[in-house]
Amino acid sequence: MAKEITDNNFNETVIQSDQVALLDFWAQWCGPCRAIAPIIEELYTEYEGKAVIGKVDVDVNQEIAMQYNIRSIPTILIIKNGEVVDRHVGSTTKAVLKAKLDKYLS
């Protein structure tokens, strides 16, 4: 299961990590979020040890959501060296997310 990213573990897990992070900002009540959830899980398995693949529940972790100006969900952020290098809002495909993530894995 993709790593649960919280207000408490965000800095240690994402900002201080030497790996690229792909974060899915979602909520339980969000239909499109549930639709891409299996894609996030597949990426978690495929990129284990190469990238941090995590989910941020915006209803529970409002501090992170506010920090990154998350206005609609799902929003996918790719963070490298503590900086947002890519942002995708709305539904998407696994191929699109893989292409975005692979670009930053060097």
Provide a compact summary of the structure.
The chain is α/β, with parallel strands linked by helices and 106 residues long.
What does this structure look like?
- The structure is a single chain.
- The chain is an alpha/beta fold.
- It has 4 helices and 5 strands, in the order βαβαβαββα.
- The chain has a single domain, classed as Glutaredoxin (3-Layer(aba) Sandwich), CATH 3.40.30.
- The protein has helices spanning 10-15, 31-46, 62-67, 94-103, and strands spanning 3-4, 20-26, 51-57, 75-80, 83-89.
- A 5-stranded mixed sheet has the order 1-3-2-4-5.
Q: In the CATH hierarchy, what is the class? A: Alpha Beta
Structural class: alpha/beta
User: How many DSSP H or I helices?
Assistant: 4
Overall, the morphology is: globular
CATH-derived architecture = 3-Layer(aba) Sandwich
Strand content is 25-35%
CATH superfamily: Glutaredoxin
What is the count of β-strands? Answer: 5
- How do the strands of the widest beta sheet line up side by side? 1-3-2-4-5
Extract low-pLDDT stretches.
Answer: none
Largest sheet: 5 strands, mixed
Helices and strands, in order, run as EHEHEHEEH
Number of domains: 1
Radius of gyration: 12 Å
Helical fraction equals: 25-40%
User: Overall pLDDT, averaged?
Assistant: 96
CATH topology (fold) name: Glutaredoxin
- The separation of the N and C termini measures 25 Å
